[in-house]
Write a structure and sequence with these properties.
CATH superfamily of the largest domain: Outer membrane lipoprotein wza domain like
Number of strands: 10
Keywords: Signal
Number of domains: 2
Structural class: alpha+beta
Domain Soluble ligand binding: 114-164
Shape: elongated
InterPro entries: Poly_export (IPR049712), Poly_export_N (IPR003715), Soluble_ligand-bd (IPR019554)
Strand content: 25-35%
Radius of gyration: 23 Å
Organism: Mesorhizobium tamadayense
Order of helices and strands: HHEEEEHEEEHEEE
Helix content: 10-25%
Pfam family, one: Poly_export
Length: 187
Amino acid sequence: MKSTAHLLRAMLALSLLTGCSSYHPTPAAFHEVLDQPYRLGAGDRIRITVFEQDGLTNTYSVDQSGYISFPLVGAVPARGHTAQQIEKEIADKLRQGYLRDPDVSVEIDRYRPIFVMGEVGAAGQYSYVPGLTVQKAIAIAGGFTPRANQESVDITRDINGKVMTGRVRTSDPLLPGDTVYVRERLF
């Protein structure tokens, strides 16, 4: 009877500790995506240049459904595509009765924003710039509060259409669209 009570207490303590733990190891794909070409998403703005076609050269935003609206050819799918893929697709569509040999160039004009929340001075939405790290994003958001856990943060990232969350160090790089959550420290 006494050993059963000890076993029940041990199981209860273990279940309580497991329930308090919110740690999820960082998925392998989390860091692999950093070495891949940038893929467009809703909120990005791109600059499309069609050589010797001033009427087509402009900046275009990727809408919520993942498309850009381009003159003459209409909606062009952009979500999940690289700038080079968009160049090829637009050039192919322009060849179909509009231009003989279009020379199309696509570059990122503005990246979608990042979001910083939790134990920071001013949580909110911030502009992404290439080379942004977690530490720099926290500095932009007003720095850590006195209660912040400064060792690691949780990042939520969309990888190939799948939303993943992982715990990373503050020196890790960010990607456009990431959400950074700074946890409260225990002591």
